Amino acid sequence: MGQYLPIFAMLILAVVFAVVSRVISQLFAPRRPSVSKASPYECGIVPSKAPPERFPVKFFLVAMIFIVFDIEIIFLFPYSVVFRELGGFGIGAIVIFSAAVFESFVYLISNGALDWGPIKHLKQSDIVSPARTATTTIRRVGLEGRAAGKAA
Amino acid sequence: MSSETRATGGFLESGLEGLQHNFFTGTLEELVKWARAHSVMPATFGLACCAIEMMAAGGPHYDMARYGMEVFRASPRQADLMIVAGRVSQKMAPVLRQIYDQMMEPKWVISMGVCASSGGMFNNYAIVQGVDQIVPVDVYVPGCPPSPETLMHAFLALHQQIRDGHLTRRPGEGAGIVLEQLGANGSVPVTLSRS
Amino acid sequence: MADDDAVSGEADTLLEIASETMYDMLLVHSSGQLVLHVERTSYVALLATLHADGYHMIVDLCGVDYLEHFDRVLPDGVVAERFEVVVNLINHRERARLRLRIQIPESDASLPTAFNLYAGTEAMEREAYDMFGIGFEGHPDLTRILMPEDWVGHPLRKDYDLGRIPVQFKGAPANRS
Amino acid sequence: MTTTHDAPINVAQTAEGSQELSSRDVIAAGERLRELGAVLRISESDALEAELKAVPEDETMIINMGPQHPSTHGVLRLMLELQGETVIRCKPIIGYLHTGMERTGEDLTYLQGPTNVTRMDYAAPLFTELAFSLTVEKLLDIEVPERAIWIRMLMTEMNRISSHLLFMATNGMDLGAVSMMLYGWREREEALRFLQEVTGLRMNHNYIRPGGVAADLPDGWRDGVLRLLDILPDRLAQYDTLLNQQPIWRERLQGVGSITAGECLALGVTGPILRSTGYDWDLRRDMPYMAFDQVDFDVVVGSYGDCFDRYAVRLAEIHESLKIVRQCLEKMPKGDYRIQDKKVTPPPRARINESMEALIHHFKIFTEGFKVPEGEAYVAIESPRGELGCYIASDGSSKPYRMHVRAPSFVNLQTLPHLMHGSLVADAVAIISSVDPILGEVDR
Fold this sequence. Notes:
The structure holds 4 protein chains of 4 kinds.
Chain A: H1 5-28, H2 35-38, H3 57-111, H4 119-122, E1 139-141
Chain B: H1 11-14, H2 23-37, E1 42-43, H3 49-58, E2 81-85, H4 93-102, E3 108-112, H5 113-118, E4 139-141, H6 148-164, E5 177-183, E6 186-192
Parallel strand pairs in B: 1-2, 2-3, 3-4
Antiparallel strand pairs in B: 5-6
Chain C: H1 9-13, E1 20-22, E2 25-30, E3 33-38, H2 43-52, E4 57-65, E5 83-91, E6 96-104, E7 110-112, H3 121-132, E8 135-137
Parallel strand pairs in C: 3-6, 7-8
Antiparallel strand pairs in C: 1-2, 2-3, 4-5, 5-6
């Protein structure tokens, strides 16, 4: 039991600090609610119509992808604590498990789920390439274009 | 918080301002004022040429970070100082007022440059002649544009003002009860206090 | 409309001094620059000719209110009106600039838009409308651009009060609340 | 302690009615096509295809990238119609910094004019002063002495360097490279130090006046210039290593907001944006003014016309300006820094005590101002953002009858709807920063 004492102490300290700072700032702060404070911040413009509720599906797609990989990490945590005792068998199991998840990751990347917007189709062309640096993309046109005399 | 809008009610309703000034709350008040003075976060409200000098004050050479102010918060929710840096046009006035209203108390305003303070050299139809017609201003900074050193002198003046201000209620200020008194043109809020 | 002789101004200045023409419009040399005085009716046609001749960019379009300066120097044959729209064009190949001055009467202050040929004039025409009240027929979005939407009057007109607040000296009764 | 009194009643609401972006089913078909990027007369079939591809109304959201926004370089307000993260339509709404400078210009004499116009483009104030002074000198038909021409060129090129350094700083910060802001400002302070040594002010110098410059170069100005010429090149090399090899920097800029030369010419765009499309047009070289024909430098031109090209063009233009500054240093002639014409230039202060005419001239020039013959003129120079022109119509009095400044940013802003069509919101920030508008000169 004794070995868990520091963890409990830290837990209590964290809780106390959170509660105290929350309560004090709540109590000490001057409270002057007003209509404009309640209205959403639109860069200084008083919003005329309510913000829409419909959100495109792409945002939920990213959330789904996150959950898939989050679960993978959760399974890795307990493994990492006892991986010495499990030895070869443990490594084999984890490799199979992560290969399965990694396969879905590869599918996602190839499908372009994470490439949003115009960059998707530009990737193949040489517009977006490491070879193109600030000095190679410009060309210096000399003075041959200069008109002979002084134009009006 | 100047006396004009004294908070009413006790500790629970209006926090520190509801308390009477005595030995304990006095030291607490000093601590709060010290904390506020040294971590003022300006809202980016750069309008015109003064905004460039304000950014220069934030740059490495003049380094506003010495006074704990280099974090420019974009949204008024997280800012407590609005530096009106530049000339305020008639079209911008309601926007400025909306940003000011959306800032949380305690909040201060620095009117940077002569155009913000008094319309400057543009005494015409397009410019609000002095931003204090729209928002209450704490520190006026002269100069067109004020050099970063002048702006930093304004910061120090603001910090001094914060430290000299009153938070808890002083004995002479009464209970801060606000009544509606029927004045000449409609009812006028009056605070019952001696000061 | 204009025959395409594209006679450049310099060539025939030496010959007939009286009144040169370029694209059949009255040409004037104003401090070393070519200025064409254009009729309102033939404005769009001239723009089409100029566009074909290489003047493919309208650099600037602005209004001028000549309320207090009707007696300005104008070549004969041009009726002085209250408003004037000044259009600056540039020809990158021949490195030449050309300025068009179009007289706009106060009674019907309007001009056909140049947006269809030069898409860059959209904002400039909105500014001329906002500041002078000169309407542009066929403009896709003729609204105010610089002043607030509910602003009354056109500020750059000469009869528009500057709105100057008298400077308050110490002790002077300040009219601020 | 702020006195928070309630909002004054006359503060109108912030809505701007018909100037704002209206929802797509309200506006007419032609207007909708125009705002969907079909502004530059694409063929009917493409226009129809753009129309069909348009997304049903309720899936999109019109939001405000409003006047007070960290990345709109001042008080530019953009109304964006977003479908998820993709920008479908964009409408810039300007006027939030309208100062009525053209109207104020009509009440100031020609000597006071530069103080008013210098506050238009506050990142490069000397350029507007130069355009104003050149126009007045063309109206007066006077020739400025040789030394004044070269001083003006030296100072404006130094101002171009400080303006492009400001672009480097804000462009980096807008894209998240906040340390770029520190480096950009560090170099800009060096340039401002030299400008302050000569003109006495960091900004809004009022140094270039009709008839020459306000004061001669202080002695010891050569080491100021040489010092700058030594430290800047390797600092610019630091920018290269800091930014160019970063995949994030490349992905945020390459292929974003690209425009073709034809679209630029149709929209009247000039300056680094036009040059980034590969179209080499620079007023300093093609229609040389002052002494730019005796100075050799390169015009830098991009290849794809996207944000990365604009960044590269401006970075290279700093090197070109350094080249010009070095040549100005070597070829600086001796002589007067202001035209000796009594009617235009006030006499030196000491002369006033000695001679009566000097006193009269001084008095007349500073109270009533010198008279400019009747006429009108338009002179354009190459400012860091494009062609900056000043059109003055004078009625023979000592105040300009009409003073209009052709601001490059005002016209360049019209490319925003075109560049942003179909890009992400994050790209919108990169595009605004690459157009580099200065709202002081946009709203005048």
